[in-house]
Amino acid sequence: MKLQYLVERLDLKILCCEDKLESDVSDGYVGDLLSDVMANSSKGTIWITRQSHQNIVAVASLREHAAIILALGKKPDDDTIEKATREGIPILATDRPGFEIAGRAYALLSNDRPFRTDTES
Amino acid sequence: MNRAYEKTFSVEGDNFDNAGTASIEIKKILKDLRIDEDVLRKTAIVVYESELNIISYARSGNITLYVDDDTINIDVKDEGPGIEDIDLAMQPGYSTATEYIRQMGFGAGMGLYNIKSCSDLFEISSTPNVGTRLKIIIKRNGR
User: Fold this and answer.
1) Which CATH number does B5-139 carry?
2) pTM of this prediction?
């Protein structure tokens, strides 16, 4: 699923990297502990978080996330946007709570792909 | 690859503004070397957690990347407080991080545990008040 489609359906504000919305979203992850996100999220993820400092960009870049979504009106630091622009990681924002965004995104992504089975890794 | 690749990155303690810089550069190098996706993922986690450990706890440190046809070798050496009880430090969830570090979402006590999980060989040694050394080898699958 294209990031652009999720941005429209979830009514997300685009804070940077508008030119990266054609990338594919394949998964999502919710977390505020950077080690957890680093270890357990996957490539092409939309990462929903309340962390807004610049260190989130390195995590998203290293794990090749499709975008970071800041939930519940969380504003990013200036240097977060600067770094994200440099690394090409879109930062998206919403006033809605993370639970709602995760649920809606999950529903959209689930319709877009078959359920994972236990035999798949 | 015909010849091995080696590079050392220095990391400054307490400099959270540049956290991840060495890891991002290492990942770009490995991508250029066409390292497999899964090996790339493991290496990124190992290097990132090692970099953050130096920044969070040590005065300074070095991460040396050495890549040959069969393996990715990562040597981490820092000058800092060292670790008194390595078994305890290896336990997931155990952390000595300050409140400031935790507020940023670091210091969950998963760093060393995640490094070990991603390594095919993992060695740790530490001298209190001197520093800590890690030696990590990740095999390049099917090569």
Assistant:
1) 3.30.565.10
2) 0.92
